[in-house]
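Class B sortase: structure, please.
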Amino acid sequence: MKKLIFIVAALVLLAVSGVAAWQVYVPVHEDNMSFNAYEDLRQFARIPTPEPTIQPDTSSSPDFTPTPSSGPEPTLPPTPQVDFDSLRAVNPEIVAWLSIDGTNIDYPVAQHSDNDYYLHHLFTGEWNSSGCLFMDCSNQAGFSDLHTIIYGHHMDNGTMFQKLMDYKDQSFYDEHPTAQLFTPDGTYTVEFFAGYVAGVDGNAWKLDFASDAEFGKWAENAKEKSLFESPVTPTASDRIVTLSTCSYEFYNARLVLHGRLVVD
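Here you go.
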């Protein structure tokens, strides 16, 4: 009898250990899968390396006095080139590529027929808790709406939209006041003007406006809620993009970051 009890106890312990090991393995495996998938996709959104500027060697001429340059004017930094044809071959639901300089937010944006699919699927289609950045299913894919929403997970490993949490601090906004949004039809700068924590029953995700005046008032109210001060003042003629992710100040809290679209 004692031997039977020992065997049963050992089997129970083994089962519990197996479940615990599986619970550790799955998140790590999913994190690695997500990281590798999006790292592979970044080959389609690369920033060209600028040509280095060669300075004259004055080490052997201590009395050398440089003359005003007669060469070409300095050029602007090269802009990222996004290969939407290749991204579309991976996933035809691609609508944009979003990047915030100086952060790890550098991802494709997809759009499905509902707002659930990309909560648990990578851009490449595999089931994964990291999901994919996605546009609200009610929006027009070309960012022509007055207000367009992009959702993304707040991942504990620091990926996806986790970095948006830092916009609760003025200093972070001061260093990262804009994002770059690349679409098949053009490139935009997103000038952030407000960021705050809201409940899911709030109007931060409002898409339908009866008039331009109502839209302008909504944007004005959003700016008044902001946790940071911004010199950007939205108007009723602007198009606004909102980045939305989970926050944890209270049940169903969300961090929203509003910005106006400016054509590059």
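Notes: The beta strands are 45-46, 81-82, 94-99, 106-110, 133-135, 147-151, 178-183, 186-199, 240-246, 253-263.
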